[in-house]
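Structure tokens please, single chain.
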Amino acid sequence: MLGSSVQIKSKMTQLNPERLDRIESLLEELKNEMLRTNDKVEIYQKASQQMINLAFSLIIAASLAIIVPAIINR
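Here you go.
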């Protein structure tokens, strides 16, 4: 029984070129997908930062629009 178990394990660990090619192509696809996802996240982060900058600019502009006329009319 022990001998048949060893034979089964050795058959399972034998390298199959087609299987290795398939695994390699899947890894390449995953790598490309990860790169695209990283690009999307980077673009999202940049857009978020620009939106924050825009919001602060609008707040400052609105504040100045209220404060400056109040000071000038004195």
